[in-house]
Every structure is written in structure tokens, then in C-alpha cells.
Amino acid sequence: MDTPLNSAADAGVYLDQSTSQLQRLMTSATRHGQALQAGEVDHALAWQTALVSQWQRLGSQAGWPAWQAFADYLQDAVQRGLLTLDTLRERGNNDRAHLAAGTPPVLDYDYETVLDGASLRRPTNYRLLRIQAPSGVVVDERKQPFMIIDPRAGHGAGIGGFKPDSQVGVALRAGHPVYFVVFGTEPAPGQTLADVLRTETRFLREVARRHPDAPKPVVVGNCQGGWATLLLAAANPELTGPLVINGAPVDTWGGEVGANPMRYKGGLAGGAVPAVLAADLGGGRFDGAHLVSNFESLNPARNYFGKYYDLYENVDAHRQSFLEFERWWGGYHFTNENEIRWIVEQLFIGNKLSRGEAQLEPGLTVDLRRIKSPIIVFASLGDNITPPAQALNWIADTFTDEHEIRIRGQRIVYMVHEKVGHLGIFVSATVARKEHQELASTLKTIESMAPGLYEMQIEEGDGEPEGPFRVTLHERSIEQLLGSIPNDRDQEHDFAAVAKISDAGMTAYEMLWRPWVKAMVTPALSKALEDLHPGRLSRRLLSDENPMLAWLGPVAASVRARRAPVSKDNPFRQLERSTADAITHAMDRGRQLRDAGDELAFIGLYGNPYLRQVGSSHGRQRVHKTAEELLELPEVQTILNRIDQGDIAAAVIRMLVLLADSRGSVRRDRLERSTQVMTMTEPFASMGMERRGQLIQEQSVIAEFNRDGAVQTLPALLEDEAQRRQALETVYFVLGERSDMEPQSLHTLEQFEQVLGLPAPGRTARPPRTSRTPKKASATARRAPRSRSPQ
Question: Which positions ≥6 away from 258 have C-beta within 8 Å?
């Protein structure tokens, strides 16, 4: 273990760290206090207004009308109570039937099994499904297929296709073949995450084999499936098409003081020991019900009261939707001890994937810089399970800056929603109809973009030809990315101390206690602990398995036949709603006090200078290269030495890259025209996606490090006036009308026209069919990367 600072010269470091800790404590207390105060004021005003209104109405109905209103309400309340209890009984019965059927995925679509991981050399409990298109939907086998990986975080699979307006539905309606990766309740004996990776790689190859005339598959990863998708792409950069990462915790130390309390649970629990202990008590299996309980405790007002009151309040209309969601929510799944240990130690405690240190197995280190496919990251400010910092900070940890992203030929697009919660990212119909639909329609054009870091913004289209929404991609720097989301990167040193203490705790547990725990655990004890978990027991008690509820089904059927709902204007019904709001408010205040206490305890424990120094070895970040070092990379030098070599294809791509650079943003209509040029006209159509990608990367590096030389050497790439005119006509087609161009783009275009010696045309040209003609000229000087400011 590292020793703490002990010299007089280090006293200043102690003082700075102590001051930083005190500032975080004060910030935490202030923010939680302000939230509590604001909540109290808002609720007090609403409660007072509601009470005054209700008592005024009761006063105006004094006598028999008030008694009649109360009698009507009482009958309705009893009926709703019986129907709610019967719905919970049906939920328990559904759980039993779902478990007996092997917990199949909760997909809203028919499907067929394409591959079963149990049949592979290293068996796993994963399966690849082909989603069947519903009636009226036509799938084009030549279109880019989608492979969706759902989260394995305690629940079962299928949430990505839970309803018609979903990720699956969006892709099918666009004509894409859709495949879904699901998993069984029990992991295969000895299954590891490396085995899971090999299984998913086999699935991906099978999808590509089935669609030889289509581009590489799009891989969609939801939550825990998001980092699994990154692992898959980093290990197989040649197999994957664009990656869509939704609400995925990749940099698990990220967050903001005063918010995101779930990230403190590991430190306050003592690190990885509780998860490994739970797996040992489960006989080598970690019960997913523990994870679901953690999610529920994050918002007790909603999960322990609110969702049940919403059912009770409108049981006639919400019964079916409640049962459908609860079938997924209660479908608990297991992971092996080595799987959960890897997840906890490598991700949630160690944060090693973000820092380039994660190892799936000895000799297999995961480096996210190996990914070549475009990456689209979807996060939300309303997500308190995976806050934007956890979804996006890995970009800053993986790459030196946006210049390195461009040098490596990578395209990373991120989008931050204003308010949707974690589950809403996957199940919200509104999000599916807007964000997921626009993401899917933009994927085909992103691969034609110049490498770099972009923010996607989706706005109302105002009746434009593009459709109901206007999509723009704004080039961003990593500094702008980090500054656009709530973030406190200095606090990550506290989590490094957690990682170090967790390692020490695991060593002590394995040496002193684990042999005794394993010796005491029997299959009967593991089964008893599983059955007695509150999540399961509460559902079993409210099911036909409980003989004391034998009367409930017939009584509920009779109530439905004689249902007499009361008007929502009934004052006693409104008083009930106000009382429910008060209970929710009280539980929210309790949760805020709990979260504040957890955060203050965490900062006080792990944020002190001593433990920060203890954890310093675990907090080291990847050593990034400077701009000068990036310039001297052999691959950069090789490309710059060929600045005056190329043909009309290189010239067109170079001009488009320079124009995109001058604007700082890209509209989807221009991207679509660029994609049309790159895929339907020669010489691009016949050169293949890999060669086009390589050409775009090379010309992006030239534009990045030597913009002036990139412009001045354009004539060397074009043999004669005819080729120069063809190249400019192609660029005109992509840009559209000159009157619709930004001033910076127009200035850059005029530079092209001047250096090529061609006047501006009077109208927009059509894209020509061109041919390659290599030509050489003298090289120009090189320089360091430029500072790029988007519009």
C-alpha cells in the first residue's frame, strides 16, 4: 500500500486537499439544503391550495350532498382497492408462469432463434433472435441490419422491444433487419464475460453472413449492454458498423456533488466484498434481485408507493400496462461469481475500462481506441442511474483531445436529453418516435462525415422538407463536452481510494473468511436465501400460491361486473390525491436526507488527504499525448508526406472535409447528399466502405495539420480543367444553393475556386460520374493542430 505524504514540503498538498474536501462538503450540504427547502416550499403551497379548494367545495355541499359524495367515494375506493389487490395477485401468478416458461424475453414481436450460445465450444446462456416484422412492415435484406444488446443487470431481456414504439419498432419500420441478443435466467457453468464476448462475436459474424450485400451491422447497447457493445467493438474493430450506446455507465466514477447518489453505494458498502459475499452465499451465483433492489431504493417514493398508488388511482385503465412492465421488472436473472466480480472490480469500483486498464482475461486488455466504427452516445440529464458524466467522460479519458479522435479516424457523436429518466431512454414512446427514430435515420450518413467529436441536436423542423425534426451535428472539443454536462472530475480521486481499499478488503476476505463462508453454504441455504429475498417473497405472498387469497379472484370478477367509478371531481377523491402527494413528498424528503447523509459520509471518509494519497496509484489516468507528439506520430507523418498525392476522389473528400471544418456543424440534408455521392457515384461507389473510410481519415488528418497546404495542393490532385470542374460540381451538389451557405463555407469555397482557376457556376450542379487520375506535386509545410471553434 502506498504510504501517505510525510515530508514538510508536502504540507501544502495536504492543505490543498483538505480545502478541496471542505469545499465539496459545503457544496454538498448547500445543494441538498436548497433542494430540500425548494421542495418544502413548493409542496406547502400546493398542499395549502388543494386543501382550501377541497374544504370550500365540501362546505358548499353541506348536508346530504356531502354525505352522498362520501358514500360514492367510499364505494369507489373499496372497489379500486379490491381490483388493485387482484392485479397484484395476477402479477404474482404471471411471475410464476414466466419463471416456469424459462423467463422468455418480454418482446412485443414474434421472433425465431438464430443461434444458441449453449451450443458453442464455450457455452453461454445467450441467444441470438431474429425479430419478425409485423404485418404491413417490409424488411429489405440489403439494408444495414441492427443487432440490439439489452442490459443484463438483474432483469431479463427484451426492454428494447417492449412496445411497438421502441428501438426494435423504429428499425423495422425503416426496413432494417433486426436481431436481438437475449440471455437465460441461469448462466452456463463456469461462464465468464470473455466467453460472453466470444458468443456475441459469433452472433455478429452470423448477422453479417446472413446479409452479405448489406453494410456492417449496427450494434445497439442499452445500459449495461452499452459497455458490452464497446467491449465487442474494441475486440473486433473489423466486424462492427455504427455503435449506438444508450445510457451506458462506462466512466462509473463520474458525476456531480449534490446529485447522483447511486455511485456512492460501492464505497459506503466497503467495495467489492458485499457482491462477492452475496455470490458465495448463492452458491457461486449472484442474484439479480439484489441489483433490482438497489434500483428501487434509489427512488423509494416511486418504487415503494408511487407506482402502486398510480395503479390504485386508475386501476381500470392502467392494469394491463402495469402487469406488462412488472413481468420484466420482476424477472430476476443470475450471473456467475466471476462475472459479477469482473463487473464490480473492473467497472463500478475500479473504473478500469475508461482508463484503458480493463482485462477480460489474462492477455486481453480492452483499449477503446481500437474501435473504428462511428459511436453514437445517448445520455440524459434526467438519468440518476447513469448520469451524463458516466456516459460521456470516457471519451476524455480515452483520447488526448478531439485532434486524436480525428487522427485515429474516429467519429463520436453524443446527444444529451434534457429530462428523460434512465428507463425512459429505452422504453419511452416519445423518445422512440423522436430521438431513436432520428438516430436511426442519421446512421447511414454518419459514416460519410469527417472524423471528429460532434454533438447531435434535434429540433422541431418547422415544416421543412427534412421532416418533423431538424437534425444538426455540431463539431465540439472535449473541453466543450466536459463543460456541457454536470461534472466534478476532481472528486474521482475519492473513488480511487475506494478502489484501493476494496482491493485490500477482497484480499482480507479471501484469506480470512471466504473459505469458511463457502464451507457453510449448502444448496438448501442458497435456495432459502433466494426464496426469502423481499423482492420475490412480496410477490409470492400476493399470488395464488398463498391459500389465504383464494377468495380474491371471484370477488374481483364480481366487482368488475358491478364497477361504479366515482367522478374525479368528487372532493373526497381529490383529498385522496392530495394525501398521496403528501406521502410522496415526505418520502422524497426522506430520500433527500438519506442521500445527503450518504454523500457527506462518503466525502468525509474518502475525500481526506490521507486516503486520497492511499488511493493515488488507482487514480492515475492514461498518459495523453501533446499536440506536438500527435503531429510526430508515424501514421500522421506518412499521411502528410502524401499531401500532394491522390486523385479526384481524394480532392473531393478533402474539399468536403475543409468545408465541414469551416462551418463547425453539419446539417442532415447535406450529409445525405454527401452519402449519395459517396455510395452512388464513381469512383466512390466501387471502392468499398473500408477504402472510403481510409480516404476520409487521411484527408481529415491533412486538413487538421496543414489546412493551407491542403488547399494549395488541390491542383496537384486534379489533372486538367475537366477534372477540376467535375470535382467542384460534386462539391456544389453536396452544399446546395450558394444562398443557403454560411459565410465561412462560402469563403472556403471561393478559395477552392480561386486555386483551381474556375469561376463560380450560376446554379447548383449534379454530381458527376468521375474517374480516378492520380497526380503528384510538391509537398507543403506541416504544422501543429489548429484550434477549432464550432458555430
Answer: 27, 28, 30, 31, 32, 35, 599
Separation CA 498–CA 506 (nearest Å): 12
Residue ranges per structural domain of the chain: 111-253+351-487, 628-756
CB 362 within 8 Å of CB 214: no
**Better-predicted residue by pLDDT, 14 or 515:** 515
Quick check: 671 and 473 in contact, CB under 8 A?
yes
CA–CA distances in Å: residue 48 to residues 43, 44, 54, 572: 8, 6, 10, 16
Is-contact 127 117, C-beta < 8 A?
A: yes
Residue 749 CA to residue 120 CA, distance in Å, equals 56
327-366 residues labelled b (16+ CB within 10 A) or e (exposed): bbbbbbbbbbbbbbbbbbbbbbbbbbbbbbbbebeeeeeb
Distances (CA, A) of 474 to 398, 410, 677, 741: 21, 15, 22, 16
Query: Stretch 637-666: mean pLDDT, rounded?
Result: 87
Q: Are 179 and 146 in contact (CB under 8 A)?
A: yes
Distance CA 183, CA 105 (A): 8
Contact 525, 420 (CB under 8 A): no
248: left (phi over 0), alpha (psi -120 to 50) or beta: beta
Check the CA dihedral 121-341-154-420 and report its sign: negative
Decide which of 3.40.50.300, 3.90.226.10, 3.40.50.150, 3.40.50.1820 is the CATH code for 111-253+351-487. 3.40.50.1820
Grouping H, G, I as helix, E, B as strand and the rest as coil, residue 484 is: coil
Instruction: Give DSSP secondary structure letters for 538-579.
Output: HHHHTSTTSGGGTTHHHHHHHHHHT--PPPTT-HHHHHHHHH
Distances (CA, A) of 303 to 96, 293, 295, 597: 21, 10, 9, 21
334-389 per-position pLDDT tens digit: 999 999 999 999 999 999 998 889 999 888 889 999 999 999 999 999 998 999 99
pLDDT digits (tens, 9 = 90+) for 553-575: 999 999 999 998 998 888 889 88
Q: Within 10 A of 494 (CB to CB), how many other CB atoms are there?
A: 25
Cα distance between residue 174 and residue 138, in whole Å? 9
CA 580 from centre of chain:
33
- For residues 194 and 191, give the distance between their C-alpha atoms in angstroms, rounded to a whole number: 8
pLDDT at 258: 86
Distance from C-alpha of 741 to C-alpha of 203, rounded to nearest angstrom: 45
Strand partners, 380: 417
